[in-house]
Structures are given as structure tokens and as C-alpha cells.
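To the team - 2-acetamido-2-deoxy-beta-D-glucopyranose complex, inputs and output below.
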Amino acid sequence: MFIFIAAVLIVGVAADVYMQNPRGSNNRLNEGSAARAYHNRLFDSQNNDRGGYNVGDRSLTAFDPANPVMADDNALFDMTADPEAKVQYPMMFFEGSVLPVEWTSQHGCGGNEASDPYKLNCNMVIQYTCTMSNNDVASLNVNLKDGGNVERPDATDQATNIGEKTTANNNNRRGRHESESWYHECTARPRNQGLFTADQCTGDEGKSSIVTRQNNLGDRYGLECPEERDYYPYWMPTPWKDIAYLTDRTEMFCDANGKFTGASQNNKEVFRCVSPNTDERKNEQQAPANQAYVKAVTQEACNKTGGVWKGYSWGLPAPECRQADWSRVNHLGNGKNAQPITYNWTLPTIREATTDPNASFAKCVLRVRYNISTDDFDPWTTDSTSNHKNDLPNSSPVTNNPTVDIGINQGLRLAVNTAQFGRTFQDRSHVFFIKKKPAAFANRKVYNLNVRGKRGNIVQTFPATEYDFTPSRLHVRKSDLVHVQWTGSNTHHNGHTAGDGQAGDAGEGKGGTDRHNMVQIGQTSSGYTAGDFSYNYPLPLDKFPDNLFTRSKCYYANGTAVGSPIDCAILMGTSGYIQSRSQVTSATKTVDVLLNNAPASLVGGILLDFSTTADAVASVTEKQNSVSSSTSFDYICTRNNNFSNRGQKATLIVDP
Ligand SMILES: *[C@@H]1O[C@H](CO)[C@@H](O)[C@H](O)[C@H]1NC(C)=O
Ligand SMILES: *[C@@H]1O[C@H](CO)[C@@H](O)[C@H](O)[C@H]1NC(C)=O
Ligand SMILES: *[C@@H]1O[C@H](CO)[C@@H](O)[C@H](O)[C@H]1NC(C)=O
Ligand SMILES: *[C@@H]1O[C@H](CO)[C@@H](O)[C@H](O)[C@H]1NC(C)=O
Ligand SMILES: *[C@@H]1O[C@H](CO)[C@@H](O)[C@H](O)[C@H]1NC(C)=O
Ligand SMILES: *[C@@H]1O[C@H](CO)[C@@H](O)[C@H](O)[C@H]1NC(C)=O
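Output:
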């Protein structure tokens, strides 16, 4: 009965967290429909089917499902190499660069539980993992793939089949985050019997960690382990690395230096039982030999099997811990300061990101979990002793849809689903690369400047967003570099089925395609006035030689300088379709006025360096938030900026 109710309720829910930058997938890949095809594809988001962005395409044509990735990882980020390749485009960020991670969450968060309480408990867990093949235990290895189709990878609860499933998933081009071996262990490991499960019938002895209060039928989502998904920090070693823990209970979880004090695998050893034979535990094909060890979840049980109780830690700094930013309930919107809720992530080095010793890049995925529970009981002190047990009076502090007396000796029913009274939502990015900075810039700070949003109007894109640059207002110093890069899909048709919303892909240019460019704006009749956001017309570069591109130096992702300021301006204005003035003067290439023949991605991105430009004079000062010698540059995307319908317009401010 309880199981039935919970199953029915899970189907219709729409709550959620959506990553807006980097673009969260919400389990989408290349769907032409507004609703994602398969919510079980890679992970359990518990989000609305309409959320998420398609994976990026590298060129002007959608990727080929039979060959979705580019074989040559060096050519992948070379703008001049194979511009028509029909492959996916993973964003590429430099080691140590700053990436604005933006999201919207439906139920609100923030407010300190002790001093400024909100009406719920909440925390955000931000993590990443990267392709790794060299871990001490096979289930911690990761082989990230966005995949060529919207199907879910195969999994197995038979240890002997793990290798076979991996091969089949590779052959069938299935997307994958966690590994086949990770999910297999989840099916074999007994669930944590100490957890509070309320009146959900999950207390049964013998069930494995695929069953939780929130997922009491053990539904499978990709190769994610449901118990690991629902709880943090997890009590077994996981393939995830921690970035930040944002909470309303800073006094409980954060130290004075803003570091998480809990059992993060970053800096603390998390123990599990493994085979004493190194080859057996490192090699997935040997997994059958590991079965007894996987089942032994205590040190004592491990000793009895002859296993080794071994601690695993990434040897990274403790994750940042701070108060979650405030956001409003029932409103997938911005924070208190009218800016998107953002976490500035300083990217790890390749060495930190992957345990593979010789890797020259890391292939990674970012994960955001949004965890909320009510104040009706204290989630941090309630455990399995409060679980409802069959044949006994209900001892759970909360029960499903109770009928309550409001003092009139008649009942009124409350909408309570104990599978959702404490609940975790999730979103994950598509695969992205972390690469080394060009040697000349090794000691310079890099800020990422990207694009968010997808094809459609405000209603059609929801709960994703319309197009915008992100951050839309970026302050950097002259000594910093700005890494400008965008990607988009050629299949954002946003058609039927449209789930809970409206189908359609309002916008300019070829249907279903995302395109972007970066063109400086300014007043043209009476001269250029910087820092004034009012204009919607580009600044003609020939008439205004004092512009963004003459004031900066412009480099390809590999550190090679772009020919001239005008070449750079042309490149940014055509999304890399035309890369030099000579291609214009010789009429080798003519860009479509709506960028229809330009690639969906600014391949590799462009580094802008402001270090050699003179400080600005007073006439080009920014009006707010800046010292008088700052310079600001306002720019738009010519295709998508459509005044009164859509604004893709932003400001870059360079402080001395
Ligand atoms: C760097 O990249 C640019 C554009 O992708 C390419 O034209 C150039 O040949 C590359 N330079 C080197 C040294 O590889
Ligand atoms: C969510 O919060 C609950 C307490 O309400 C906690 O037990 C659980 O570990 C948290 N999960 C995550 C993913 O933060
Ligand atoms: C397990 O074995 C180790 C090494 O023999 C020993 O130090 C430890 O006390 C044992 N632990 C348990 C819980 O039996
Ligand atoms: C993120 O970094 C940018 C650039 O320095 C800054 O303008 C912005 O305020 C930061 N945002 C947050 C939430 O710290
Ligand atoms: C890494 O490179 C070193 C030196 O080239 C080599 O000896 C070693 O075998 C490589 N390791 C792996 C795992 O490829
Ligand atoms: C600007 O947006 C509106 C509303 O989506 C649309 O009707 C109009 O066609 C757009 N303008 C152009 C030139 O496409």
C-alpha cells in the first residue's frame, strides 16, 4: 500500500534544481522534444522532464549518433581543424580558472537555521568527477561518456557480467557517468540499516543500497547508486570529489576557515572492505573474486572474510563550506541581489582531477545536489529507531497523507509523502575538459565567460532560460585573462512532447539551432560611450578604433595569437566561421546574416588579455561599481538580442 502510494506520487512531481551554467543536462542528450526522452538515463534528478540542455554540437550540423565524439582530442579544440566535423562539443576550461556555476532551485534555500531561519532545512553539495582508470579499487574508476543516444546504459547484479556489460555499453554508445562496477557493488552491498525511512517499507533486512526512503522500489537511474545519491557525506568511498557544501547549518558543518568539517573523502579517509590482492581489486574483470568483501560493510565483518579494511582519500583540500545563498520558495529565479545564484568554482589541476599519472587533460562532469527537508522533525537526529515497523503502532514522526484534526472533531487531510518530506534533487553537466593553460599564461588568473540558455521564448525554454551571457557582468583586473567560449545544440527544436509546458522554438535563424557571437555595442551617432547598456547597435570597428579588440590581445586556446584586432573581432562576430580579414576581402567566406552557417560552438574559445592596454580615461568609465580608471565593454549577440523579446547583452569591466 505505502509502496503503491509513493510510486504514484513520484510520477507527477515537479520540484527541482537546474544547472544553468555549465549547461545542466537533466538527463537530456539531443532530444528534439521539449521534454527529455528518458529520466532514467544517467542519474536521478527528480526534476521536471522539461529541464535541461542538449549536449553541445561542435559544428553547424548535429553530431552523428554513430560517431558522437571526435577521435583526436587535440583537434577537438582547434578552431581550424575539421570545422564541419559532426561531433559533440565538450566545453574546455583551463586548470585553475574560475567558472561561474549557476543554478535555479525551486524550494528556496539560504538563511541560517540559528539566526535567520527559513522554513526548511537545506544544503547544496557541489561535486565533480573525471575519467580515471588508475584507482586502487575498480569501482572508483570512471569513464565518462555523454553517449550517442538517449538510452540508459545496461547494468548487472551479476559480478561475472560486469566486463560484458561494459563492452556492450561501449558498443551501443551508451552515456555513462559512474561505472558498471560501481552500480554492481551498489546492488551487492547491504543498505545502511541505521537510516530513517519513516513509514516507507524499506527496512527489510537483506535489501541492498539500491533501495532508499526516496526510492523504495530501487529504480535504476544510469549507474548511480541510490543510497550514495541520497546521502552526503557517503559512508563508503565514491568516485566523486567534493567542491563545496553550502548549508543553513554552518555552525554544524563549517569551521572558522570556511572548510567542511564532515567526512569528506577529499581530505579524510573513507573506509571499505577490499580484497588483499591488489590485482583483484584494481581489475574490474576480477570483480567476482571481490564479492565477499563488498558485502562486508563493517571492519569486523571484513576481518572475518580475510579482507583488508582500507581507507580511501583523494588527498585534496577539504571542500569549501559556507552559508547557502538565499533564494525564494516556488520561484526558479535569482538570489537576493537579483543575480543568478552562483558558486565561483576554481577548477582543479589535471593532477587533482584525475588519478591517471600521465594525463595531459581531464574529462569531467559537474554535479549539483539540492537537499531539503522540513522542520517538522530534526533530520539530523532522527534515525532508524523512529522507523515504522510492521505489526507495531506507527512510530514514525511523519506518515503519508495523514488526516488531522484541526480542533473541530472532523478530519482534514494533509499532503505528506514521506518519501519526499526530506528530498534530494540533482543536476549534472555534460562532459567537459580541463586542460593546461598555454605556457605563457601559466601564472595568470583566467575567468570563464560563457553563454547560457537555449532556443525559445521564456515559456518554451522554462525551466531552462532564454539566452544570456554568463556572468552577464564580469569584473576582472588587467592582469587577468578572460576565456570566452560558448556551445549550443543544433537540435533544440523544443517540439512535442512538451511535458508540462509549451512546445516551440521562437528565435532567429534556422529552427532548433543555438548560435552565438560577441559584438561590441555603443552609441554610433555622437561617438562611443562605454558603460552604457542602452544601445542595441554594434560599434563599427573601422570608425571606432578604441574598442574591445584594439584594447586587448586575443589568443586561440593553444596560446597562438590571433592575427590582428580586426581578425579577432571578425572571429568573435562569426563564432569562428571567419577567422581573418583576408577571408572577408577575398570573399572566400560570407557569413549568413543570422549566423546559420556558423558553428554552434566557439571551438576552444578565445583568451582576451588586457594587460598591455593603458588604463582608461575618465570619459570611458563605468557608471557603477568601478573605480574611475576602469574600462567597460558592452556587447551583444546580434542574432539573439531582440529588444522587448530577448536580451543577450552583457558587460565586461576591466579594473586596473
Ligand atoms: C593554434 O590554434 C589555431 C586555431 O585553432 C591554429 O590555427 C594554430 O595553427 C594553432 N597553433 C599551433 C602552434 O598549434
Ligand atoms: C540530505 O539531508 C539529510 C538530512 O535531512 C541527510 O541525512 C542527507 O545526508 C542529505 N543528503 C545530501 C545529498 O546532502
Ligand atoms: C580487524 O583486524 C585488525 C588487524 O588484524 C585488528 O587490528 C582489528 O582490531 C580488527 N577489527 C575488528 C573490528 O575485528
Ligand atoms: C564570481 O566572480 C566574479 C568575477 O570575479 C565576481 O564578479 C562575482 O561577484 C563572483 N560571484 C560570487 C557569487 O562570488
Ligand atoms: C607514465 O609515463 C611514464 C614516463 O613516460 C611511464 O614510465 C609510465 O609507464 C606511464 N604510466 C602510465 C600509467 O601510462
Ligand atoms: C523578435 O522576437 C519576436 C518574438 O519572438 C519575433 O516575433 C520576431 O520575429 C523576432 N525578430 C526577428 C527579426 O526574428
